[in-house]
Design a protein that fits this description.
Layout: E1 2-8, E2 25-26, E3 29-30, H1 31-39, E4 46-51, H2 55-61, E5 68-72, H3 79-84, E6 96-101, H4 109-121, E7 126-132, E8 141-144, E9 150-154, E10 168-177, H5 178-184, E11 209-213, H6 226-246, E12 250-251, E13 258-259, E14 264-265, E15 270-271, E16 276-278, E17 282-283, E18 288-289, E19 294-296, E20 299-300, E21 305-306, E22 310-312, E23 315-316, E24 321-322, E25 326-329, E26 333-334, E27 339-342, E28 344-351, E29 356-359, E30 362-368, E31 373-374, E32 379-381, E33 391-393, E34 398-399, E35 404-406, E36 409-411, E37 416-417, E38 422-423, E39 432-433
Parallel strand pairs: 1-4, 1-6, 4-5, 7-11, 12-15, 13-16, 14-17, 15-18, 16-19, 17-20, 18-21, 19-22, 20-23, 21-24, 22-25, 24-27, 25-28, 26-28, 27-29, 28-30, 29-31, 30-33, 31-34, 32-35, 33-36, 34-37, 35-38, 37-39
Antiparallel strand pairs: 2-3, 6-10, 7-10, 8-9
Bound molecules: uridine-diphosphate-N-acetylglucosamine and calcium ion.
């Protein structure tokens, strides 16, 4: 039997943030979500999250995990005090308790599996995850013999200068035989420099306690401030990019690219510099994204290119050409072989196949068929100041440059709209609609004089000589 307890009640004062520390984001997921994920591979019988500071925020961030039980630590009086709060919840529990710190987000599940296996094999009272760090500053130091049997853990600020030299640190990840821990938890004292109840103090009273060093010390990096958070994010980014590079994705100048772990990328995709892929995003095989693009909660179809553009909450079909400088948002969708050119904005618009919107357009709340050609500067006037209205354009229709389609409006199939038209009435199939003022040209007119002799030849300014 394994119960997992995650310490997540602390404020994280050193973060200087309104948000509780464990809710800070690393590559698209909160620290606490990552910690839970790291143990998700084990067969866990109980999940307990200890919450306190802004506990309701932490609870609601985990609302989609119905198996999690929340344990309230009203006052944050130390990690030992936090674990004491479990006593009434695990009164009859006889199994092992895996304790994870909510601010140690880079753990691999294989490491936790190894911790649990060692713990069981040696029938330890406790097994703790340790690492040897060249710069152990800030961490509790672990003192053990050659067989890795632990005598005690001393917090950095409670160390004497000689103890501080010890480079083996406590990762804050422990496996306890719960009945052994439960028996001594009530006796914890707070006679240390912080006046807190330290979980690490139980080690002196348990036997045997064994340390296991992690192979990759990066895994147990905790973060207490934003510098350490940024360093942890860099580690995650590197892991994610290595994964995609190994899976057949080309990243040009990887350091300038960020990719959330929640993103899926097909083979032979090229990601160009300064491109950011976030949230629930999927990039189809052979697509080329960037330079300079942001794709968030979006799907990009196979073989499409997205150049210097922003695509959010939308789906681009296969073999599309997007950008430079297009903005696709708010559940827009395109079919195959579409083109969205420079300064084109799509919002809640659906385009059929091979529809082209090449320059300077806004299409909002619109449905366009196949092979529609949207002329430069076409605007759907979708908002009357109170409500949004829909525009529909049928297959193979064309809008002339600078057309305004005042919604609600329907343009049929194979219709043409003349350049500069303001269309306020539906346009049936196979028609030409012209909605613009007729041009008046006044011959013999020049600024400053009422009339000029019509016979005066126009002067060519390039040949005019100055007197
Ligand atoms: C802790 C360990 C230290 C270890 C380090 C690893 C103790 C006394 N020290 O130190 O040996 O090297 O982690 O990262 O345990 N929390 C609560 N309630 C509280 C206090 C803290 O839930 O009353 C939670 C925090 O939200 C955090 C975790 O416990 O997720 C660790 O607390 P923190 O104050 O960051 O401990 P460290 O000083 O880092
Ligand atoms: Ca910490």
């Amino acid at each position: 039997m394994v119960a997992v307890a995650i310490l997540a009640a602390g404020k994280g004062t050193r973060m200087k943030s309104d948000l509780p520390k464990v809710l800070h984001d690393l590559g698209g997921k909160s620290a606490i979500a990552r910690v839970i994920e790291s143990a998700a591979g084990l067969s866990v019988d109980r999940w307990l999250v200890i919450v306190g500071h802004r506990g309701d925020w932490v609870r609601s961030s985990l609302a989609d995990l119905p198996l999690v039980e929340f344990v309230e630590q009203t006052e944050q009086r130390g990690t030992g005090h936090a674990v004491q709060q479990l006593l009434p919840h695990l009164a009859d529990y006889e199994g092992d308790l895996l304790v994870l710190n909510g601010d140690v987000p880079l753990l691999r599940s294989s490491t936790l599996e190894a911790l649990l296996a060692t713990h069981r094999k040696h029938q330890n009272a406790a097994t703790i995850l340790t690492a040897q760090l060249p710069d152990p500053k800030g961490y509790g130091r672990v003192f053990c013999d050659q067989n890795l049997l632990v005598q005690e853990i001393v917090e950095d600020r409670d160390c004497n200068p000689q103890q501080r030299q010890n480079q083996r640190i406590n990762a804050g990840i422990y496996c306890f035989r719960w009945p052994a821990l439960a028996a001594i938890l009530p006796q914890l004292k707070n006679d240390n420099s912080q006046g807190e109840y330290y979980l690490t103090d139980v080690i002196r009273d348990l036997q045997p306690v064994m340390a296991i060093d992690v192979a990759d010390p990066e895994e147990i990096w905790g973060f207490n401030d934003r510098l350490q958070l940024a360093a942890a994010c860099t580690v995650l980014q590197r892991r994610t990019k290595e994964h995609w590079l190994r899976s057949g994705v080309t990243l040009i100048d990887p350091n300038s690219i960020t990719i959330d772990e929640t993103v899926t990328i097909g083979p032979d995709v090229t990601i160009e510099p300064q491109t950011h892929l976030r949230g629930q995003t999927t990039i189809g095989a052979g697509a080329r994204i960037g330079p300079g693009s942001l794709i968030e909660n979006a799907t990009i179809g196979a073989g499409s290119t997205v150049l210097y553009s922003v695509v959010v909450d939308s789906a681009i079909g296969p073999q599309n050409q997007v950008g430079p400088f297009a903005h696709v948002r708010g559940h827009a969708e395109t079919g195959a072989d579409c083109r969205l050119g420079n300064f084109v904005e799509l919002k809640k618009a659906q385009l059929g196949n091979s529809t082209k919107v090449s320059h300077l357009s806004y299409l909002g709340d619109a449905t366009l068929g196949n092979q529609v050609n949207v002329g430069a500067g076409t605007i759907t006037a979708n908002y009357d100041g109170v409500n949004k209205h829909h525009t529909t354009i049928g297959d193979r229709s064309k809008t002339g440059a600078n057309s305004v389609l005042v919604a609600p409006i329907t343009v049929g199939c194979d219709a043409t709209i003349a350049a500069g038209s303001t269309i306020t009435e539906d346009v049936p199939d196979d028609t030409l609609a012209i909605g613009r003022a007729r041009q008046t040209t006044k011959p013999g007119w020049r600024l400053g004089s009422a009339t000029v002799a019509i016979t005066t030849p126009a002067t060519d300014p390039t040949t005019e000589t100055t007197p």
